[in-house]
Specification:
mainly alpha; hpI Integrase, Chain A; globular
């Protein structure tokens, strides 16, 4: 069950508590997106980065752990506890940060990525630009220079 939680958080960049408030009907029918039905910033639809992870983590067959918690904070804390108990070498929110950076590398417009994450473009920029490494800049540069339609020097 926790493998499904980990996979859906990585694939869709969800907040810890949002895994407990998902509509996965479209995903179960063979589609690509999930809908967050409740959470810190309300309802929204999210598409995967690395849709291959849908199959790898068997995300089309949702299985949630039975956890207690009355609030978003309580539920999010349960996920954080699970990461610690299983000695996952990073924090659950790191999966969300990685999703945000991947959207930039994939070329998803920042307005769309911000909306899928449930915040404004400004918040998206302020938070996630911090996570872009020199390696990501190098890969983006190389991709741009390899484009056959790139502008030639004057």
């Amino acid at each position: 069950m926790w493998r499904w939680v980990y996979g859906v958080m990585a694939c869709y960049g969800l907040r810890n508590h949002e895994v407990f408030y998902l509509n996965t009907i479209e995903l179960q029918r063979g589609g690509w997106f999930v809908s967050v039905t409740e959470g810190k910033t309300g309802m929204r639809t999210v598409w995967p980065c690395y849709p291959e992870w849908i199959e790898q983590f068997d995300l089309r067959s949702p299985v949630l752990p039975d956890v207690s918690g009355r609030s978003h904070s309580d539920l999010g804390h349960r996920v954080t506890q699970m990461f610690r108990r299983r000695n996952v070498p990073f924090h659950p929110y790191d999966l969300r940060h990685a999703w945000a950076v991947r959207t930039m590398l994939f070329g998803l417009h920042d307005a769309l990525a911000a909306q899928q994450m449930g915040h404004s473009r400004q918040v998206h920029s302020d938070i996630y630009h911090h996570w872009i490494s020199q390696g990501e800049h190098q890969r983006a540069f190389e991709a741009l220079m390899l484009r056959s339609d790139r502008p030639l020097p004057p």
